[in-house]
Each structure stands twice: as structure tokens, then as C-alpha cells.
Amino acid sequence: MTRGPLLLSLWLGLASAVDAPAWALPTREAGPGVAANAPVLVLRWRTFAPPGGRFSVLLPTPRSKSIAVPSGVGYLYTCKADDLGYIVQYNDSSPDIVRDLGAKKVLMIFDNAFLHAGHKRLVRRSLVTRGGYPGERIDALRSRGRQERSCAYLVGNRLYRLVALCPTGDSEAQADADKFLNSFTPTPAAPPKPAR
Known about the structure:
This protein is α+β, with helices and mostly antiparallel strands. It has one domain (3-25, 40-186): Mog1/PsbP, alpha/beta/alpha sandwich (Protein Transport Mog1p, Chain A, 3-Layer(aba) Sandwich), CATH 3.40.1000. Helices cover 24% and strands 37% of the residues. The chain is built from four helices and ten strands; from the N terminus they run αβββββααββββαβ. Strands 3-4-5-9-8-7-6 form a seven-stranded antiparallel sheet, sandwiched between helices. The longest helix is centred in the first third of the chain and has 14 residues, at 3-16. The protein is globular, with a radius of gyration of 17 Å. It starts with a helix and ends in a 10-residue tail after the last strand. Residues 1-34 have low confidence and may be disordered.
């Protein structure tokens, strides 16, 4: 198997894990000016920086728990309430793959796998950067009027995917999604210490 298909099959497995966030957040009752059927959350945001993850991001409380991705090469962190969800996943790829394919191609393969998993309809795709690292932003639609807003970043040979799931047309939920996506801060690994 060549590196391209190997990379694609690995990331298809990781991308499909994004379809099942599993941790509940607190909710509050609808009040004046809030539709009775609209999910309304009281979100208290806290910085989340898992050991070894080399990133920090704002996530609503309670803090999400880590889940080992079945392939054993990445991690998935999730928070969910009703139709709202926040996901951070990352995995390390071979430095050779990144060198041979280049950042743009690696991100394209990663994002295409993400779009393929869950049969999403692409709305918008654009290039972004965070801390000088290349990335792609994807807005996609899913069934039942849900929107997925996502960013992927390549930091060295580590790929990060952030996903915010929210109802289409809910401006408050979309503002929270942007807050989450814009809070991501990569902290690259320290260079190796010189031998004595």
C-alpha cells in the first residue's frame, strides 16, 4: 500500500470517531425571549490542555474525558449536549509522509476523510493558520439541520481536528462554536536537548 492510501485509511478511521461525542453538559430551562424548543446551555468555559497533547483550547464544563482512538495512534476529547458538541482529536503521522506529500496535500486528505465520514455536505472550505501553522476550515451540513464547523491544523507531523456541532441558524450556538475553534493554541514539542 502506498503512503497516500495508507494515510487516507488511517484518517478515515479517526474521522469516523468524530460522529459519536458522548459527554453531557448542563442545560437550563427556556426563559423569556428564548424559544421553548431551542436548546439553551449555560456554558462555563475553561482551558483544556491534556498532558502530552501539546495544545490548549477552551471547552465548556464539565471537562471532557479522553478516549483512546481504536487505531492507538491518536486521541479524541469530546463534550456534548443535545445538538451541541465540541470535539478535539489529534494523531501523529510519520514525518516522512508529511515531507513526501507536503502540508497542503496532508490536510486535503485529512479533510476529505472527515467529509466522507458521516456523509456531510460541504458548505465552505478555506485555508487558515494558527500560530503560523497551516490549516483548513470546513463548514458542512449534516442531517437534521445540524452544522459542523471544523478546523484542521498540521503542527510538525501532528494533525489536529477541532469540530463544533450546532443547529443551523442558532446564532448563539454558532458564536460558541467560533469561540471554541478560535481558542485553539498549539504548543509544539520542545526541541530535543543536546547530548552531553
